[in-house]
């Protein structure tokens, strides 16, 4: 028996939005942000863990991050992993604390970062549209199997479209904010 659940659709789309915003946080804008390093994977105690799980990351100034490992004996391993993460930074290890100076971004690099954000936005929009398509397919099948009326099917599809439009707008708003932040000098 088919039962349209608006809350479930919203929850699924919210997860896609959350994933998008998580990706945006990892894209570097003009100033230092702990999110830039949070997703770096570090192999400690025989397993891969995110940097934020093994160290605290803080902002020293606009162009410097500080990483303080919870276990000071792992500082050299963390330093090496940050260096090898392909982020274009050269961390400096000083008495158990790692300073990560971030180079100033050129205009070309800023535009490249915006393009990366746009790609994340498009991927998220596709995920949301796929959720819409799945829900509409379920509704059409239920109508075809005579579980719901044609009017109910159209009402459900209209509700799903409203939810879809709302989440696409949220993605576009987040992308717009991040793009302005990146391009602001």
UniProtKB/TrEMBL annotation:
Residues 20-183 form the Ribosome recycling factor domain. One of its GO terms (biological process) is translational termination. Responsible for the release of ribosomes from messenger RNA at the termination of protein biosynthesis. May increase the efficiency of translation by recycling ribosomes from one round of translation to another. Coiled coil: none annotated. The keyword RNA-binding does not apply. It comes from the Bacteria. It comes from Candidatus Deianiraea vastatrix. It is found in: Cytoplasm. This is Ribosome-recycling factor. GO terms for molecular function: ribosomal large subunit binding. Residues 136-155 are annotated as: Disordered. CDD domains: RRF.
């Amino acid at each position: 028996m088919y039962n349209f659940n608006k809350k479930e659709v919203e929850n699924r789309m919210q997860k896609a939005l959350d994933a998008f915003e998580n990706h945006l946080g990892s894209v570097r804008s003009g100033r230092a942000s702990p999110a830039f390093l949070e997703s770096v994977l570090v192999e400690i105690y025989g397993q891969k863990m995110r940097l934020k799980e093994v160290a605290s990351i803080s902002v020293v100034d606009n162009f410097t991050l500080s990483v303080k490992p919870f276990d000071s004996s792992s500082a050299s391993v963390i330093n090496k992993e940050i260096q090898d993460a392909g982020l274009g930074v050269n961390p400096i290890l000083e008495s158990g604390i790692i300073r990560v100076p971030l180079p100033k971004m050129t205009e070309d690099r800023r535009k490249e970062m915006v393009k990366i954000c746009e790609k994340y936005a498009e991927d998220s929009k596709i995920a949301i549209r796929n959720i819409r398509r799945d829900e509409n397919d379920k509704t059409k099948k239920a109508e075809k199997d005579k579980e719901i009326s044609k009017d109910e099917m159209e009402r459900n599809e209209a509700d799903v479209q409203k939810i879809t439009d709302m989440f696409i707008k949220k993605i576009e708003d987040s992308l717009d904010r991040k793009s302005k932040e990146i391009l602001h000098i």
